[in-house]
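User: Some background: our group keeps a shared notebook of sequences we're curious about, and every so often someone picks one and asks for a predicted structure to add to the entry. Today it's my turn. The entry only has the sequence so far, pasted here. Could you supply the structure so I can complete it?
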Amino acid sequence: MRIISAIPKITGFVSMGVLVLMMLLTVADVFLRAVLNKPIIGTTEITEQMMVAVVFLGLGWCAIQGRHIKVDLFVSHYSPSSQKIIDFIINFIALLLVAIICWRTFKTTIMVKQLGITCSYIGVPKFPFYAIATVGWISLLLAMLGHLIKSLKDGLIK
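Assistant: Of course. Here's the predicted structure to add to the notebook entry:
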């Protein structure tokens, strides 16, 4: 269980680190543009690619923290045992959907690598960023799996 939750935590910290680097890059670009009239070439594209890491690597960490949006308009009126069962079913379906997304993102990563797709302005290959998205989805999948295992250990009905 610790290993399952460790990976989303690690990817979450990497996401935070990339966010800090992205902010530093933006500040440096603005400073150099304003003071020396020499902006950093490709800052917009670099920032766009860094956003992939920030968003996707943060998915699993967000799930571990229980910070994803949850709408329980109707379920909140049910008994606690019914709520646990409905939560388990919804989380299981979501786990299946995320597994499909992981698989398709991985296949897309392979296709992008084979086609040699690059960023238009700076020419950096795009497949590593697709791979980062795949790792982010896998991180979310592991976090959801850990949550399901925990709910089974705690018991659906008490």
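Suggested note for the entry: Residues 2-154 form one domain. The radius of gyration is 20 Å.
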